[in-house]
Amino acid sequence: MKINRCHIYSCTMSLLLNYLKSALRNIARLRVHAIVNITGLTIGFAGFIIIMLYVSDEMAYDRYHVNSDDIVRVLSTSDFEGVAERSVSCPAPLGPAILLEYPHLIAGMTRIYNDWSTEYYIEYENSGFREKRFFFVDSTFNNVFDLKFIRGNPQDALGKPFTTLITSSAAERYFGNEDPVGKTIKFEGRINITITGVIADTPPQSHFSYDFLASMSTLRVLWGGKMPETWVYNPFWTYLKLHDRNNAPQLAAQLPAFTKKYFYDAEKDHITLGLQPLTDIHLRSDLDYEIEPNGKISYVRILVIVAAFILIIAVINYINLSTAFAIRRSRETAIRKVAGASRQQLIFQHLGESLLLTFIALVLSLAVIEVILPFFNRFAGKEISSSVIYTAGFLPKVFLLWLCTGFLSGLYPAIFQSGFKTLQVLKGRSTRNSSGFARKALVVTQFTLSITLITSSMMAFDQISYLREAELGFRKDNIIMVPVMRSPVAGKYETFRDELSSRPGIEGVTAVDYIIGTDHNNHEFRPEGYPQDKWQFYPALVVRDDFCKVFDIELVAGRDYIKGSKTDPMEAILINEAMVKHLGWKSNEDALGKRFHSRVGNEKVTGVFRDFNASSLHSKAGPLVLNLKEEPWEVAAFTNFIAVRAAKGQNREALESIGKMWELYAPGRPFSYTFLSNELNKLYNEEEYLSQVTAVLAVLTILIAAIGLFGLVSFMATQKINEIGIRKVLGASTSDLVMLLTSGYIKLVGISIMFALPLSYFVIDRWFGHFAYHADVKWGYFFLAGALSLLLTAAITGIKAWRSSEINPAITLKYE
Predict the structure, then answer these.
(1) What is the C-alpha to C-alpha distance for residues 725 and 742, in angstroms, rounded to an integer?
(2) How confident is the model at residue 430 (pLDDT cuts 50, 70, 90)?
(3) The whole model's pTM is what?
(4) Hey, is 526 helix, strand or coil?
(5) Phi/psi of residue 730, each to 5°?
């Protein structure tokens, strides 16, 4: 029995070695076939794996927390007669109250706060920085989220007022190699905060990044010993850690009763609370007041589909070339059958060759990835390491990818070749039609996918161009936005504005609480016709004098705010056309003089301005208010950005003027600015990245298809070399011979164009659905993509056909 086993093992190894030798011999003998297949598969593997690395990185957001599946974020949606706010932040009392109500479901709670601020000013000794990642958090933050402490005690690091944690990179920026624990930083030039611990930097896969985490009790002291008790003001991001993830539906079912119990009577019928899993935030949340911009799961799916297209096209190449070149291996197959090989053994042999070729392509693709991944990271703003490929979580997927690709690539060619009729092959008769329907269908599929991707990428670029050049209803060019929140400039705005207005290069100065066109907040108003206690929450921008003038916002009825007026803040207000329609007023003129009270003032509508988008073009322009604040402390508190309109061509002079003024009013404080057009462009960074990646992948798909087409034409030219020679002897011209070899492929590409047209339109129409405004579908792009494919096909097939037709018939026919 032992001898039999050894004999079987020896025979099996001999057979496998024979298959390996045969495969290597065939690779060497059919070099064009092997090179084309390996090149196509290498490109396909490299593109697919890089996209999968990106997708894996996107899907990994916030999963580094041990209990990530048990953590949820509380959402608050308010809907006041069709004007909705979908907020990811909540009132301050909500967190403690919900924990008190449902301790059997909730294990922990923490809140994050930065007053929706873009930055805080932090000083240490003689240096200061504008920190965009400074947050106040509850002392329970480390109980809900996982912080890696480098220095300090995790148990009480945030237990006292005026304490903070600092990340290692921020600590190095402020203190170099010194130990920061125990050192004191100055917050906004007036509050000393002591560092109690150093924590690791925020992992890249986090839905928000921090450099400082200060104790929430600091705010309690600054606010007179207690947190805000109002259920209206809602700047606190609130997270809950559940005892078990399965408690989420049970807790969600309790939230309507919780709302009825705690929210004010004027709100409770308009507020809906919800729970959002922590791991859904990055890709499945596009709500109001996100801490940072998120990705989109739909865009991730698009990239996966495009990456799959690349791999499919590479597999089609392999199948096409393998079946085409099968005729040159038919005699080998017949001899093996005569020698006793079964069809199953022949299929196994050909599948083995397929797996060998795909393995070689996979190894080469890994080398390619090492080279291009750094460029991809810079392009995508990622920090993906190639070492991820070789981790226990990713490497099995790569192995499975190789097996599936090798099997799918080789299965049909293996069945095709193993099915040759032995007798007919040995008699020299063709057993199959080498230009069969299946191969033509696969070529059509290749080019249909390629043309669809090319067309879609061109339309994507067109949409990005449209978004960035669209008429928004306000001026965006030559506008410089200067953040001034909580700075000395905000409190001295009028004098700063007056002095700056007289400086070179300045055409106008105003201020606003949010960067126009990027975001806004909701405020309480009571329009005419609503009861005394029926407050409505409407989108609003808190502005200063000359706002409409600086931004060229057109008033369609009434007047603008009067500069320097003492009564307008209390008695005047501006609304847009959409608000007039929303309230059911007859016309813009009819709206003038109607009551539109704010929380403090007794305003009436004095002007109606033309609609403009207060946020991105993903959503339509809706009701909007331009409001002057009444109380002096509110006026300063809402002066977050100064908008400076520079004279055309004088941006440099304007910046010099602003910088000099800044030094006078905020000496020692870093001066920063941004151009409004740049901030608006950032709204579409995700779409621009998607369009660029799609364009690159579209080029790769057409490249793979072209490589495969070259291989097919080379094979056909070799097969028809004698026919070409005979036709040439009989008087056929070069153009006739070129048409002989090219016309069939050009027809196939023509059929691909017909299939690609409706498919491309479907893809584009679905993508346009992400935007409230989009470019017109340009049919010229469809025909341009088709024309490029036809030209590429004609060039590849024509050049090869021309070279074949130039061979001397005496050489090709001398043995006939």
Answers:
(1) 17
(2) low
(3) 0.85
(4) strand
(5) -80, 0
